[in-house]
Amino acid sequence: MIEGQHDIALPVRYSGLDDILRRVPVSVVWEITLACDLACTHCGSRAGRRRRDELSTEEALDLVDQIAELGARSVGLIGGEAYLRKDWLQIIAAIRARGMECDLQTGGRNLSDARVAQAAAAGLNAVGISIDGIGATHDRLRGVIGSFEMALTAMANVRRHGLEVGVNTQINAHTLPELRTLMDIIIDAGCHNWQLAITTAMGNAADHPDMLLQPWQMLDVMPLLAELAVEGRERGLFIQPASNIGYFGPHESALRNVMNDEIHFHGCNAGDTVMGIEADGTIKSCPGLPSPYAGGNIRARRLRDIWENAEPIAFNRRRTVDDLWGYCRGCYYAETCLAGCTWTAHALMGRAGNNPMCHHRALDFAARGLRERLVKVKDADGRSFDHGEFAIVVEAAMPAVLADA
Amino acid sequence: MPEPGRIPVPLRLCRGCRRFVRIEHADCDFCGGDLAALEAAHAESAAAVRAATAELRTAMGRLLGLP
């Protein structure tokens, strides 16, 4: 290999057309407990205490079998903090025994060397560690002083035991200015995968509207991310934008290029190749979606029955341009995009089908000397995966914004 | 067999302005470029880069004494 170049393999959770046609839940994201040792100001599930009726070990292991029967290739364990569940190693071992890859997404506060060693022995493939900004920014967002250093220590622990280490970062008003420097830090720490997502107005984040990006900030976000993606690839870091980052501006190709610059966003894939599971056995099409999207509970129905027949998780294959509203209804990209991330749109607007967090849309408004601003009009009620509601104000763009656009 | 998922509606990359456009269109809806001509020019340029890279790799191999 020529020095400075790196092989990049696609993660198994990437889905293809055959997966869509057979509707294989390629990637399952499973909240195995809501217990958490951090207190994140943006946490969508408002994690902290366990859910009252989390699955027993026996139920969890049976669920692993049911997930495998559907053909899943990757199971991501999340929380809360997954390692706070006493049987988390048993669950990892069961997932691996059924031939699926298993990764852990963690805040890393107490991901000690001993815990990583146990997880590696159980068969864990990879660990994604949440790092939101640098130092005090991360500590403030994660609600624990010192948690940034703890996350870096956790990364080192993971690498020491030979597991693949990735980083997950929230993009919001606090972290956006620090992304470039953070990229340098995580590359130096041995990270090869960086998952980025825009902070969604759900749970605790809905209570902190000052933290949320405004739609017009996509004019800054997308060029920056595209630049980081290109630079990252040259330095061996593979940037994976979440479904809520986009869509279709001039940087789309640079941002999503995975060895093919013709790859573009294809719309939300919740319920087609992605499945979310809550700690009490509730099945959703995406881990972040609120309760109206719950398809059922594995205590009442078999997983296959829910996956194949529950209408609340079938919205993607039912959705057409006629279901869109607002700007998205008449958008050039409507047929392909279908309003982007369902989770983001629903959390902001109270229903899916109109998503203001979009680069193409921000460019279109800027070209007319306008911009969209979100104003909170309804509070969230304080439950896990709840959301408030925002109104869109269209106003004259600031001169600086016009110049940047 | 479960009901199939939603089949994505593909778009085509304009090699002029890097916007994605509808595949049935001949000209880019954003920059007005001739999509086929831009694609042909891009393919020619990409082939030249590939050829140069192969030559460089061979030359480096010779310098380093690799088979």
Automatic annotation (TrEMBL), chain A:
SUPFAM superfamilies: Radical SAM enzymes. It comes from the Bacteria. Keywords: 4Fe-4S, Iron, Iron-sulfur, Metal-binding, S-adenosyl-L-methionine. Signal peptide: none annotated. Residues 22-248 form the Radical SAM core domain. Its cofactor is [4Fe-4S] cluster. The keyword Metal-binding applies. InterPro entries: 4Fe4S-binding_SPASM_dom (IPR023885), Aldolase_TIM (IPR013785), Elp3/MiaA/NifB-like_rSAM (IPR006638), PqqE-like (IPR017200), Radical_SAM_PqqE_MftC-like (IPR050377), rSAM (IPR007197), rSAM_sf (IPR058240). This is Radical SAM/SPASM domain-containing protein. It comes from Sphingomonas hylomeconis.
From TrEMBL, chain B:
This is Uncharacterized protein. It comes from Sphingomonas hylomeconis.
